[in-house]
Every structure is written in C-alpha cells, then in structure tokens.
Amino acid sequence: MRASRLVNLLLILQTRGGLTAAELARQLEVSVRTVYRDVEALAEAGVPIYAERGPHGGVRLVDGYRTRLTGLTPEEAEGLFLSGLPGPAAELGLGTVVTAARLKVLAALPPELRARATRINERFHLDAPGWFRRGEALPHLAGLAQAVWEARIVELDYQRPGQGDVVQRRLEPLGLVLKAGIWYLVGRTAARQERTYRVSRVADVRLTDETFARPERFDLAAYWSASIAAFEQAQPVVEVLLRVPASDVAAVDETIGGDGIEVVEPGASPGSPALVRARFTWEDDAVAALLRLGSRAELVEPQRLRAPLVRLARSVLERYAEASREQEPAIVGD
C-alpha cells in the first residue's frame, strides 16, 4: 500500500506542481505527518523532492523533473516487479538504488499497467534462503560488489573449506552469484583461470588501484551453469534403499526432505512394507537421515551404512543415558 501511495504523491506533484502538506494529505487521505514521512522516503530513494514549512511553504519537485516510460506490455510490467530482489540488492549496497528505480518506473507507467505491477508486489514475495537458516555474515560483500562494478583487482584473505588455514588470493572479480541464499564470487586468477569462492569465507578484502579488462567472451550465467553441472556430476551420489510400512511413506518422505524419496515397490496394503529409494550427496547425510527416521524404516541397501548407523545410535544412547543418570535424585535411607 505504501508504494502505491508514494507513486500517487509523485504523480500529483508532477501534474499539479507544489502543494501544501495539508492539501496532499486531503488528496491522499492520510495525515500531514504521513505526508512528511513519505516525502522523506522519496528523498532517500533519490527523488529530487523537498518540503518547505511555513505559510508559503509546500512540497515540490525540482523544476524539470519528470519520469517517462513507454512501450511496456502489461506482462512486461508485471515481470519487471516480479524479478525484484530487495534483500539481495540491500546486501550489495544497492537497496536505495533499487527502491528509487522501482518508484520511478511505477510513476512512469500508465495507470492500467501501474495497477497490475502493484498487484505483483502485493501478491508475490521471494525469500531465497532455506528454512531455519539465518543469513550469513557478509561484511565484505559490498566491497566485492564495488570491485566487480569498477573492474578493480582485489586481494583476498580466504578461509579454505574444511580447513582452518587462511590463504591469500589475488583475483579479477568477474561477478557475484546468489545461489539458494548463499553468495559466491567468480574471479579470474593470475593464471587466467576462473574460480568460485564463497563470500562468507572471505576473511578480508582489499581493493587495489589496479583495474582489469573483462574477458570479452566471458558469460557469467553460462559459466555458472557449466560449473554447477560439473560439480553435480563430480559429486558422489549415495543411493539408499529402505523398507517402510506403506502407511509411513509420506512421513518418511517429509522427514528426509530434500528431493524426497522414490517409491520402488508400493506396499500391497497399509500394513505391508514398501520399498523406497532416497539419494544423498554424502554418506554422513544418509546416516543422519536414517537416525532421524528411527524405527520407521529399515535399511536394506547399502549394507555398509549399517555399522556407522549403529555406532551413531549407540553414542547418542550412551550420551543421554549418562545425562539421565546424573539427573537421578539421590536415595536417602532411613
């Protein structure tokens, strides 16, 4: 609702010139205080607007300011606002820029397209990170974004995955990619090889005064698609075959999560067992999922996972049995 009100305020000022806050409040059916708050919001978004208090004051746009946009179809107007990513834009330090652009586009659209674009904002919202995941600490994302925009060579202190050591890297930053709520930097090394780095593992970044020429044929989207395909192909896939009661198939599917399960052989009746298959990237992930399933599922294949599953179950049992003994009240005799 506020976005629509800001656009209406902008349109009124474009068509009628300066008005007092009281006049704007009557037209927008809001309080004078709300008008001043909206004026501040537009100013923060980069719109050249100002307010003068007093008997001869009012709210005005800088002379000559206009927004014009033609040629958009209704579908294009809707798609433009459906593609908005306010969260990632803010992380890149572009939140104000995106807000200003959206307001200007809305103000420039014809009324019928403006209404359709506004409905997109009211009905659709993108939340990229997965469930129960807090955003990663990204103190250096804005600096990396600046280096990407300005084509400046950077020097990174980077913590390698699975290891505690920090290494130095000198890179030409070619782009930033947001994948499943996680930011990645694509950079070119001194050996002219493209590499991918997780931004949350960047311990420090220094922007040098040196610039570089982007490779003419480098396509960020194509590089990312190819690297994802290569990564998925190289990753070992652990297939697990489980025997579960037919009535528990849905519960097992929900517990495993991810890509879910594949029913290999359905049970003949609700009480009879079904065979289902699940896929995991790592054996540790498979063992942890099997432990979560408890007695609802029996591991059929691969047999090698039974031993680590038993070890993990025993360690959990011993841990909590010990804690339970510590909490037992002492028995005092007569």
Mean pLDDT: 77
Q: Alpha-carbon distance between the termini?
A: 74 Å
Largest pleated sheet: 5 strands, antiparallel
Low-pLDDT residue spans? none
Percent of residues in helices comes to: 40-55%
Secondary structure tally: strands:
11
SS content category: alpha+beta
Order of helices and strands: HHHEEHHHHHEEEEEHEHEEHEH
Name the overall outline: extended
* Portion in strands: 15-25%
Round the Cα radius of gyration to an integer and report it. Answer: 29 Å
- Strands in their spatial order, largest beta sheet: 6-5-4-3-7
Number of distinct helices: 12
Short synopsis of the structure:
This protein has twelve helices and eleven strands. The chain is an alpha+beta fold and 334 residues long.
Task: Summarize the structure in words.
The chain has 334 residues and is α+β, with helices and mostly antiparallel strands. 43% of the residues lie in helices and 23% in strands. It is built from 12 helices and 11 strands. The protein has helices at 2-16, 21-28, 32-44, 74-82, 86-91, 95-108, 111-123, 141-150, 220-234, 249-256, 283-293, 306-327, and strands spanning 49-52, 58-61, 152-159, 166-179, 182-188, 194-198, 202-211, 238-245, 261-265, 273-280, 298-301. Strands 6-5-4-3-7 form a 5-stranded antiparallel beta sheet, with helices on one face. The protein has a 4-stranded antiparallel beta sheet with strand order 9-10-8-11. α2 crosses α3, α4 packs parallel to α7 (111-123) and α11 (283-293) packs across α12 (306-327). It is extended.
